[in-house]
Amino acid sequence: MLLELKNIFKWVTVGGNRVFLLKDVNLQVQEGEFISIMGPSGSGKSTMLNVIGMLDGFDEGEYNFLHESVHKLKEKQRAQLYKQYIGFVFQQYHLIDELTVYENIETPLLYQDVKSSERKAMVADMLDRFNIVGKKDLFPAQLSGGQQQLVGIARALIAKPKLILADEPTGNLNSKQGEEIMDLFTQLNKEGVTIIQVTHSEKNAAYAGRTIHLLDGRIEQQVTN
Amino acid sequence: MFKNYIIVAWRNLLKNKTFSLLNIVGLAVGLACFILITMYVMDELSYDKHNEKAERIYRINSDIRFGGNDLRLAVCSDPMGATLKKDYPQVEQFVRIYNSNGSKMLKKGTAFIEETKVAHADSTIFDVFTLPMIAGNPKTALSEPNTVVISKSAAEKYFGTVDAIGKGIEVNDEQHTVYKVTAVIKDMPQNAHFNYDFIFSMDNVEYGWGNFLSHNFQTYVLLQPGTDYKAFNKNFKQVIDKYILPQAKQLMQINSMEDFARTGNKLEYSLMPMLDIHLYSDRFPELGVNSSIQYVYIFSAVALFILLIACVNFMNLSTARSSNRAKEVGIRKVLGTGKKLLIGQFLTESTLMVFIGLLIAIGLVWLSIGYFNNIAGKTLGITMLLKPGYLLFLLLIPVVTGVLAGLYPAFFLSSFQPIAVLKGRTGKAFSRSNFRSALVIFQFFTSIVLIISTIVVFKQLNFIQNAKIGFNKDQMLIVNGTWALNNNADAFRNEVAKMSGVKASSFAGYLPVSNSSRNDNTFSTEAVMNEKNGFNMQVWNVDYDYIPVMGMEVLKGRNFSKEYGSDSTALIINETAAKMLGFDDPVGKKLYTLVGNDNELVSYTIVAVVKNFNYESLRKNVGPLSMRLGYNKWATAFKVSATDVTALLKNIETKWKSMAPDMPFSYQFLDDSFDNMYRAEQRIGKVALSFALLAIFIACLGLFGLAAYMAEQRTKEIGVRKVLGASVTSITTLLSKDFVKLVCIASLIAFPVAWWAMSTWLRDFAYRVSISWWVFGLAGFVALLIAVLTVSSHAIKAALTNPVKSLRNE
Ligand SMILES: Nc1ncnc2c1ncn2[C@@H]1O[C@H](COP(=O)(O)OP(=O)(O)OP(=O)(O)O)[C@@H](O)[C@H]1O
Ligand SMILES: [Mg+2]
């Protein structure tokens, strides 16, 4: 098993009252799975993905990642996981404004001490695959929303992660581009990469093996496609 | 409108408490330093200005070179003043001041007290200097022998009342003269180049009057209004030809001043404006401890730089905050506020901040003035700030500083484009600002220069402490005033020498530290003295034990010895004298000198050369010196061993009291007196250290604020990088790198500047340390360390923050 959430609760206190963001969430993910998370806006999809990605904490319950309790993970081990194991695609892209498209995509490789010549080849390959070679010297502010999203995906994939956490990866793309990304995810999944994606589109959700429906921070139902 | 500015400014101040605090604390500390230093500088510049005729008072300086020995004197001969007044109508009045030993024993009740603020002066002193009288007549106060004018505090000390006219004060001289108080003056101000509590009549000085060749009197002339003193200086040539040459012809075979000059000798007189004495005069002997214009410059520069550092902080922090203000600026602009109004608003804001800083600064000055007085050797009072001129200056500070510090942020903020601002695109413009980098470089430049200066000053002080000075200053107890024991002096010395803990003893009227007795005389290598074979050197009367007790080293020949009957005409010279004489082997050679009032020529035989010892400060080279056998019992030196010094002192004092019950017991340790010679340097060291620390502190405050701001600006970037796998170390490095680069640039600029400044300072010392490379390395390293520590605390904090927090804030 890759990861397991057991009775996870997460809340914020607003004006003395607890507002639950996640309520008693239980989830098991096996290595090599492809999972979609769906639900209305504000239902807690991003929150759940952040917890899974250890970007955010939780208030109650237990979370094991590769049979290790996440509580016990040290900052260093977490950085190690981000570096070698997990690739994130953010809903708001989160590109570094000060770096160019090329540099943004290259950054994860810098942290993995990949040789410069190798890096060049890998980045060039990504630029090519996402059809953004012409934009490589532009800054994020000079790109359209969809283009930024593509750069964000390229950056998540370049280090060949074993787990991809994608928060609405196709939200700003046209349907053809969206399809291409989904094909790419399916391809990666076949190669053994575990993928968890958040999406509003039934069509995209169907690419996954399993869909989880969230409502008000609670898992409503799980459907195997 | 203005009221609206103030309200907005005040709310902004409260809204950003951390930034406001950093800003105001930095400013307050900077302003406090600035105020303290300007007080110091103003005090230095105020010396002697209280004299109503200050601008017309001049002192006669003498510059003499005789036989290769240079004398720069603050005194001239006794008839000089009167001669000038008689021959030159430009001279309205003159006055002489004479304080031969620098102290007198005065009787109070039944015991004698040593008073050091004493001098003899001509009755004309009241015509020349402004010494306001509480009682008495300035015209007649000192015109008769056995009269004395005393200060208010002296009157209160001796008579318990200011009403002291007609009372008598007994002086412990040979005749036990009783002086009659003829006037009481106000206490002389601290900021004067001399300060006396007792001015005795000049008529009581026993002296071979009318001698143009002996220089012993501080002489001041009051010139008629409009006289050019530089032009007046030309008259001295006439005076020399008319009065001095005839006397010189009689004594030595000097025929003309041209001959005298041709053999490398010199006799020159000049007037020095009295107002210049405190800051420019470094002659012998001075009536008080003078300062140096160099220190005024150094202090002023330090004050200005610290104020600038504080302003720079202010600019940096205000502009850094700009992104928070950007939205306000955008909205105000959209609402139609013009650029000018915005600039006005921000300047009002900075002035308000500076004003608050100023109030705190005055509090800090009030708290620290005692400490500052202590290290700077001053007696400044906080009341000085209340003088109208200074008050105006104080009020100008916030305005000038506020504008200076606020101008850049004001222009920077007011130039935002509304759309860009509302879209939130201003942070970048600022974070890449070269101007900000320049400001940080400036702060570290100043800090590094101050660090280097501090290290060099302390190195030099350490060098002085441990220099090979040619005598032993440690564990040497000097009992002063043993001459007053008269015939008991020998008995006292022998009794004390027998005490346990005392190893050896010697009469020591002449001591190898500044401000001790000195005696110089003219010698010649031939029996007939002329301008070619004559030269001046120190002659000290010492006893058989002096050289061994003082730990001086005989290089050639032998010490004085009782085994040689003829040692009363033996002379021991130092290396400088030996070199000046140019004999291959000076031992056995003869030297001639004139002694006594009838100028009898006496011959001496050199029996030894003693290794050079620094008998003046290490600022000066060792001059020629000779010692002959004699008993100068002015003081007695005891070599003690370091067991229980307090008990030993008690025993010695008991012995003293039994032999001279009405005389005060006074002593000094030679190493303390030695240290006293370098008090100015120690002060400078302490002052440099204090201000270096403060400058660094202020610079750190600024850096701290900047780093906080930078970390805040880059939280999103840090979050993203962490998610991509960056470690804490790599993020800390990322954030610190820029600052480290700036500190390195600052070092590179600071090194040559500091090197130049400190070389200039060290040039004042004949004996000095070199500025080695490690000083620069150390200073650069310290600055770097401080910068990294300041910055990395933020960087680490930012690096440890949960990434989702920083990302959610978008
Ligand atoms: N720090 C917070 N304080 C208060 N409420 C929060 C906080 N973070 C998230 N929420 C709330 O939690 C809920 C879930 O947010 P989340 O971002 O997970 O929604 P989502 O399902 O991803 O929605 P969308 O489809 O719009 O992206 C929202 O109602 C949001 O307002
Ligand atoms: Mg979401």
Q: Give a count of the beta strands of chain A, DSSP E runs of length 2 or more.
A: 10
Give the integer mean of the pLDDT values of chain B: 84
Radius of gyration of chain A: 18 Å
| List of distinct ligands in this structure | adenosine-5'-triphosphate, magnesium ion
Q: What does the largest sheet of chain A look like?
A: 6 strands, mixed
**What percentage of amino acids of chain B are in beta strands?**
15-25%
At the first level of CATH, the class of chain A is Alpha Beta
**CATH-level-2 architecture of chain A:** 3-Layer(aba) Sandwich
Domain ABC3 transporter permease C-terminal (chain B): 301-418, 690-798
Subcellular location (chain B): Cell membrane
GO molecular function, one term (chain B): transmembrane transporter activity
Domain MacB-like periplasmic core (chain B): 20-238, 469-613
Explained architecture:
Chain B: Residues 301-418, 690-798 form the ABC3 transporter permease C-terminal domain. Chain B: This is Putative ABC transport system permease protein. Chain B: It is a multi-pass membrane protein. Chain B: Keywords: Cell membrane, Membrane, Transmembrane, Transmembrane helix. The complex is a heterodimer of chains A (225) and B (810). With 225 residues, chain A is α/β, with parallel strands linked by helices. Chain A has one domain (3-224): 3-Layer(aba) Sandwich (Rossmann fold). Chain A is built from 7 helices and 10 strands. In chain A, 41% of the residues are buried. Chain B is an alpha+beta fold. Chain B has 3 domains: 57-280, no CATH class; 432-468 and 677-810, no CATH class; 476-676, no CATH class. Chain B has 26 helices and 24 strands. In chain B, 42% of the residues are buried. Chain A binds chain B through residues 50, 53, 55-57, 75-76, 79-80, 82-84, 88, 90, 92, 94-98, 107-108, 111-112, 141, 155, 159, and chain B through 425, 428, 716-717, 719-728, 730, 800, 802-804, 807, 810. The complex binds adenosine-5'-triphosphate and magnesium ion. Residues 45-46, 91, 167 of chain A line the site of magnesium ion.
